[in-house]
Amino acid sequence: MNPAGAAAHDPGSRPGRDAALMSIGEVLAQLRTEFPDTTISKLRFLEAEGLVDPQRTASGYRKYSWNDVARLRFVLTAQRDQYLPLRVIREQLEALERGDDPLARQRPSLVAVGSEPEAAAPETTDSRVSRDDLIERTGAEERLLSELEQIGLVTSRPPGWYDGDAVVIVEAVVGLTRYGLEVRHLRAFRTGADRELGLFTQLLAPLVRQQDPAAQARAAETARELQALSQRLHSALVRAGLRDTLGR
């Protein structure tokens, strides 16, 4: 895993800050090709969170080096592809600055029974696939996909496209059905997700109601943090329960 192409530009290195400095608008143009939803407010938020430290002119304008851009790519890719919270990304950057490999421990050759396996990078939610492509990529039958749509586990986007989350959901369901689970068993997953979503929506509401771009950026980051913590909690609870079932 190399979240931001660190082999080409080490995001932890800081030399060369006097060469080819760019304005925040120029940096935004560099990043938007790969990260189209990036905004100036997002870049300012990442600076406020200590993920990047651009220079300032005498007039107070931000000036970014190519190393700063590499750090931003590292952060944005880790958020997009792995849903990592900023706290974890900051720790990875600090480890890189020390010359450590923060990702080595995430590359186990074998996963012990009862331990948490390395998560595969999920599809980006802004990708689009057709119904035929979704079926081909996941190996799902047409009947199964229709049943998942009927119970609300998968929803198509007008005019009939499916996003990256739909791909992940259907792939997971296909895997679960191989072990004998039926679609009717999956209603509990939808119910649990809806309850969790309702709780998180209440927590995010004060930030979402604010029109301040900085508040919107904090809301997006808080949502990622909540999702990451929820995944850890869910995995730990299931793992502990299975350990009891297996008598371990």
Description:
Keywords: DNA-binding. GO terms for molecular function: DNA binding; DNA-binding transcription factor activity. It comes from Winogradskya consettensis. InterPro entries: DNA-bd_dom_put_sf, MerR-type_HTH_dom, MerR_fam. This is MerR family transcriptional regulator. The protein is mostly helical. Helix content is 54%, strand content 2%. Strands 1-2 form a two-stranded antiparallel ribbon. Helix 2 crosses helix 9 and helix 3 crosses helix 4. The chain is globular. The N terminus is likely disordered.
Bin the strand percentage. Answer: under 5%
The largest β sheet comes out as: 2 strands, antiparallel
Shape: globular
**Widest β-sheet, arrangement of strands:** 1-2
How many helical elements? 9
Q: Which key phrases capture this entry?
A:
248 residues; single chain; two-stranded antiparallel ribbon; globular; mainly alpha
Summary, kept brief:
Residues 43-95 form the HTH merR-type domain. By secondary structure, this protein is mainly α. Helix content is 54%, strand content 2%.
Q: How does the SSE layout of this entry go?
A:
Elements lengths: L23 H9 L7 H9 L6 E2 L5 E2 L2 H17 L3 H12 L33 H8 L3 H9 L13 H14 L9 H22 L4 H33 L3
Protein name: MerR family transcriptional regulator
InterPro entries: DNA-bd_dom_put_sf, MerR-type_HTH_dom, MerR_fam
Organism: Winogradskya consettensis
